[in-house]
Design goal:
This protein has 3 helices and 13 strands, in the order H-H-H-E-E-E-E-E-E-E-E-E-E-E-E-E.
């Protein structure tokens, strides 16, 4: 463990010194060499006051420390991204639940529409829309208890026609005991079949749907 930390520190320090030299033309070591050369060639009968040089050296040291901090943060962020990537890939083949309004219908098997209702409701309605925003099915759920629930959608529209496989949006709302409209939190569920990375973020794919890895709430063996 100590060897790893020491190696990382040395690498970070070297990276910072190189970045500093590229940015301002010299690093602390270069300045010390210049300082020693000036001391060697100064007039012994009229020596230069080292105060100014020491002040500049202190400033360069502070700058290099700032570069060290920046380099360390970059490495930590890279390690975090790598950890997130490994964690997200491990979800492939598992059943995941994530915050989302999308439901995946494979063309034959019922799709699970999961939700969480904040309060007991009556006159509760489930509305399913296609990619164009058109309502393809509206279902009266009646009375729904507060808490987690799910509905098995058979993939059919309001006329009983089987819809094509793909991604559909759904929402659930109802009226509570005080007459207020309550909107359920909805979840996208299914077996993760892939992972993609975009702009530093990991997305888990479930059929035709992609959900941010950070939105995944539960994972189970499929």
């Amino acid at each position: 463990m100590s060897t790893t930390i020491t190696g990382t520190t040395a690498t970070t320090s070297t990276y910072a010194a190189d970045a500093m030299k590229k940015s301002i033309g010299m690093n602390k070591d270069d300045f010390l060499v210049l300082f020693m050369e000036q001391l060697k060639h100064q007039d012994p009968l009229n020596p230069q006051d080292p105060t100014e040089f020491l002040g500049q050296l202190a400033q360069l040291t502070q700058v290099e420390q700032a570069y060290n901090t920046s380099a360390t943060l970059e490495k930590l962020l890279a390690a975090q991204d790598s950890s997130m990537a490994m964690s997200s890939v491990a979800l492939i083949g598992k059943e995941v639940t994530a915050l989302g309004i999308q439901a995946v219908f494979d063309g034959s098997n019922p799709a699970t529409l999961s939700y969480q209702m904040p309060a007991n409701t009556s006159a509760t309605t489930l509305r399913i829309t296609n990619a164009s925003g058109q309502t393809v099915r509206q279902i009266d759920l009646g009375t729904v208890a507060a808490g987690n629930g799910s509905y098995q959608w058979d993939g059919k529209d309001g006329q009983g026609n089987l819809l094509p496989a793909g991604s559909y949006n759904f929402g659930i709302s109802g009226i509570d005991g005080l007459g207020n409209t309550q909107i359920a939190t909805t979840y996208t569920t299914g077996v993760a079949d892939g992972v993609r990375f975009e702009n530093g973020m990991a997305y888990v794919t479930i059929g035709a749907v992609s959900v941010p890895f950070s939105d995944v709430t539960t994972v189970k063996q499929s």
